Amino acid sequence: MRRKSLQLTLYLLDRVNLMGYVDESEVNGPGSRAVVWVQGCSRHCRSCFNPASWAFEVNQLMPIEALVNKILSNPHNTGVTFSGGEPFWQAHTLAKVARKVKAAGLNVMAFTGFTLEELRGTNSPMGAEELLAELDLLIDGPYVESLAVNIPSSPVSSSNQRLHIFNPQMQDQITWASDQIEIHILKNGDRLFTGYRRYEVENN
Ligand code: SF4
């Protein structure tokens, strides 16, 4: 299957297949965060916030060390969020990134369309346990449009999703809300929208 062979290739090359990246986001987890969007997701949820991330194709291959250096070069990043696409299809390489940024004092969070039980099950993606072991926070479950939350105090976008706090020190940092928009002006002048309503903004 294509996603498995791509996963194996990335593992062998020690590279992350990126869909996008931004520094200093405040709508993708607690504090000020680097956000790493990976390429590839097979779920195709209705009203997915990021359909450009679905295809399992090579987009931007970045060596692990280069990605870590990029994250750490911005002193305002206090954490990293892996989003997608599906981060757990690149779990092994993202676990390596996580270990290195945690060693530098950052916390690590991930969004996933899998449930935690699936990630701990026998059919989980390669490296799932390895990445889970590095996470401080996890939001699991696919986005289900009919269960959309749409309230400014919720860290999840649909009510089937669950927030797992693996690091008790982060218990009092669940202060961000999913139902917000952030606009980043990039160095080349492009605008990057992020946050749950990004899809609505870009399509209006
Ligand atoms: S799991 Fe996430 S990235 Fe994948 S289709 Fe659903 S909402 Fe989009």
Structural commentary:
The chain is an alpha/beta fold. It has one domain: TIM Barrel, CATH 3.20.20. Helix content is 25%, strand content 23%. The protein has 6 helices and 9 strands, in the order H-E-E-E-H-E-H-E-H-H-E-E-E-E-H. It has helices at residues 2-13, 64-72, 91-103, 116-119, 128-134, 198-202, and strands spanning 15-25, 33-38, 60-63, 79-83, 107-111, 137-140, 162-165, 182-185, 191-194. The strands form 2 sheets. The chain has a 7-stranded mixed sheet. Helix 3 packs parallel to helix 5 (128-134). The mean pLDDT is 89.
Short structural description:
The protein is of the alpha/beta class. The protein has helices at 2-13, 64-72, 91-103, 116-119, 128-134, 198-202, and strands at residues 15-25, 33-38, 60-63, 79-83, 107-111, 137-140, 162-165, 182-185, 191-194. The protein contains six helices and nine strands; from the N terminus they run H-E-E-E-H-E-H-E-H-H-E-E-E-E-H.
